[in-house]
């Protein structure tokens, strides 16, 4: 088989859930190695679109193609081997840290696991655990902080070295230092891969090659950050609202700090 390039095409994609049309008439071509940020209010269809690309469901109209081939013609397991998933709530199971990182590639050597953890900025905190890579974490990653779970899930994606990456960015309240570590880990991860991010972080929005703005299951705007800001349309409004929220959060955090002093 040809090596996967990682071009994704949505052609007249529609999805109904029962009698409800959740996604309608989506058309978009994502180039290999391009980073796309999906933006929109909650309920705009971003998560449904990601689930369709990941084949948790299949489209009810039109088609999604990988390198020009309708994904429904590919075996689900083969198709998913090309996809790295980093979700808001990373799924960790009861087992060692090493086993959790090697989830998608059980035959990985310890060296490969450590290399992935280093690139994910997870190596240092793993070494501080009682048994390092052999430390056991509970179901859902009990015993680890949100930022640590996130980085283990990034290490897991790095290890399988996928052509496609789906990121549902965590907005979880992590401190600035952890935020920086996660950002560096994500920068390593997206390098040279086709990335579709449900973007919540302002920094990701600025970095994406193009932003796709969704509203009520439709694509309403597509373009780079600067262009969409200049247009002062749907994206501009969303961005302003988010920058305001970020400022309010920072202000609230500042007040808490002031009270603690």
TrEMBL record:
InterPro entries registered for this protein in UniProt: AAA+_ATPase, ABC_transporter-like_ATP-bd, ABC_transporter-like_CS, P-loop_NTPase, Type_1_exporter
Pfam families in the cross-refs: ABC_tran
Membrane topology according to the record: Multi-pass membrane protein
Keywords: ATP-binding, Cell membrane, Membrane, Nucleotide-binding, Transmembrane, Transmembrane helix, Transport
Domain ABC transporter: 8-241
Entry's Gene Ontology cellular component terms: membrane
GO MF entries: ATP binding; ATP hydrolysis activity; ATPase-coupled lipid transmembrane transporter activity
Compartment(s): Membrane
Main subcellular location: membrane
Transmembrane region(s): none
Coiled coil: none
Top-level division of the source organism's lineage: Bacteria
Record's protein name: ATP-binding cassette domain-containing protein
Organism of this sequence: Comamonas denitrificans
């Amino acid at each position: 088989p040809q090596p996967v390039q990682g071009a994704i095409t949505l052609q007249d994609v529609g999805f109904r859930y029962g009698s409800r049309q959740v996604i309608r008439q989506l058309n978009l071509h994502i180039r290999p190695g391009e980073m796309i940020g999906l933006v929109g209010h909650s309920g705009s269809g971003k998560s449904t679109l990601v689930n369709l690309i990941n084949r948790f469901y299949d489209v009810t109209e039109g088609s999604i193609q990988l390198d020009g081939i309708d994904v429904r013609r590919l075996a689900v397991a083969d198709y998913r081997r090309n996809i790295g998933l980093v979700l808001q709530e990373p799924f960790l199971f009861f087992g060692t840290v090493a086993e959790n990182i090697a989830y998608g590639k059980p035959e990985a050597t310890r060296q490969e696991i450590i290399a992935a953890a280093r690139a994910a900025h997870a190596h240092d905190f793993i070494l501080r655990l009682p048994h390092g890579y052999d430390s056991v974490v509970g179901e859902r990653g009990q015993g680890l902080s949100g930022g640590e779970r996130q980085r283990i899930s990034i290490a897991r994606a790095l290890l399988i070295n996928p052509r496609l990456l789906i990121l549902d960015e965590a907005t979880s309240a992590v401190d600035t230092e952890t935020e920086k570590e996660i950002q560096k880990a994500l920068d390593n991860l997206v390098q040279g891969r086709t990335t579709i991010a449900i973007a919540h972080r302002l920094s990701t929005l600025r970095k994406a090659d193009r932003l796709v703005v969704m509203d009520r299951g439709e694509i309403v705007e597509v373009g780079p950050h600067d262009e969409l800001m200049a247009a002062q349309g749907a994206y501009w409004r969303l961005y302003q609202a988010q920058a305001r929220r970020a400022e309010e959060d920072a202000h609230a955090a500042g007040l808490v700090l002031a009270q603690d002093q």
